């Protein structure tokens, strides 16, 4: 299963790299009140890195939530009446 996940991750990463490399023309990017003309390769790269960071943070938060829930469940012991 680990090899399948790695292969899928490798294929997706390769696809992203190919798309980024093939798009080098300048594009106009707007964010809130700012406008800039930057190469599409930079915009795509920044978007991919931002998505990776958000996904990584989400995975960490989910994992931390599961850990804290399982820890609190273990600390609750049935009371002996």
Task: Explain the overall architecture.
This protein has 81 residues and is α+β, with helices and mostly antiparallel strands. The chain has a domain at 2-54. Helix content is 70%, strand content 15%. It is built from two helices and two strands, in the order H-E-E-H. It has helices at 2-22, 40-75, and strands at residues 26-31, 34-39. Strands 1-2 form a two-stranded antiparallel ribbon. Helix 1 packs antiparallel against helix 2 (40-75). The longest helix has 36 residues, at 40-75. It is flat, with a radius of gyration of 21 Å. The N and C termini lie far apart (47 Å). The model has no long low-confidence stretch (mean pLDDT 82). The chain crosses the membrane at residues 39-62. InterPro entries: LapA_dom. This is Lipopolysaccharide assembly protein A domain-containing protein. Keywords: Cell membrane, Membrane, Transmembrane, Transmembrane helix. It comes from Syntrophotalea acetylenivorans.
